[in-house]
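User: Before I run my own analysis I want an independent prediction to cross-check against. Here's the chain; please return only the structure tokens and, at the end, one sentence I can use as a sanity check.
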Amino acid sequence: MSRIILVIIDSVGIGAMPDAEKFGDFGVDTFGNIYKTFPDMKIDNLKQLGVSKIDGVDYIDYNGQIIGSYGKMKELSNGKDTTTGHWEIAGLHIEQPFKTYPDGFPDRIIKLFEEKTGREVLCNKPASGTVIIEEFGEEHLKTGKPIVYTSADSVFQIAAHEDIIPLDELYSMCQIARDILMGEDQVARIIARPFIGEKGKFERTPNRRDFSLSPFGKTILDELKENNFDVIAVGKIADIFNNQGITEDVHIVSNMDGVDHTIRYIKENNNGLIFTNLVDFDAKFGHRRDVEGYKNAIEEFDLRVPEMIEAMNKDDILIISADHGNDPTYKGTDHTREMVPLLVYGENIKRNANLGIRNSFSDIAATIADYFKVNNIGNGVSFLDEILED
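Assistant: Structure tokens:
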């Protein structure tokens, strides 16, 4: 029994991509700018895994023991969103970015959505989710109209108070939007954003649900499943892949809940991939430009790393990475085009081995294929030989 435990610390980028300026991102560095703001940040376990030795991370002074292999990865696909990042990690390269609506959705789409749901909508503009429910929440409570909004990402988001629009109806509305936003109008995700509370005290609940596109091609998840390996999804992984290639999944309510479930699965009798997404970094702190909150979340995660390691078997491999950036020190509220960290640990993994700068997130998919001896779906370069002890 052997597993790869792949933990995506959502949006923890580690420096601008060479083409970041084409995406409007200048000088972005999620991890670096947080660390420079809080140089006393307590990340002893990530330092042990090698984060301070990654190329370009010269702002961390650490001379202690390194117990893992380390590097960073460029994004080959054309984008900086959740779906693009995760699909590339799983082996797909996206040349045409998903469609975005920077001025809101056209009238023809909104009118069709209203006709099919039986409810008029509020807002219809790009916005931060927490800001938009404060702006439109009171009107929503009075009228019952759902709050429809988007962002720089390819998303159609529907916010609704759970006492006004029950979850079942909200999810049904999302499916209607999913059916509408296909073909030429296709977006990557429809997102249910339920909230509770009253004006001034509105709070989003953990009942978020994503209605994603299915991957356009075979991923490493499909390859593992077809070869009778477990593919266990923790967090929003199942949503991102529209349940394709997944054998078991669990949704989570927080980063620490996600770590709890990950450790539970590590301790169970399974064989294959445990694929976890910890979204709070992105949703609660990156988009809200909460630098201190983001720092605290990284510290909180760092403290849980030894628990994951302690639960692992001799042949298990832990990979910690990310899917894009979301620099909380940068302007706006959107993702940032960044490279992502690559930290690898296991009893049979080389200590203090520099994996350099990889050319694609898909190197993870190629390495997974190599480790489990299944077909490489064609993208990425395996780093398995670079990390295994002789």
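Sanity check: The domain at 107-212 is CATH 3.30.70.1250 (Alpha-Beta Plaits).
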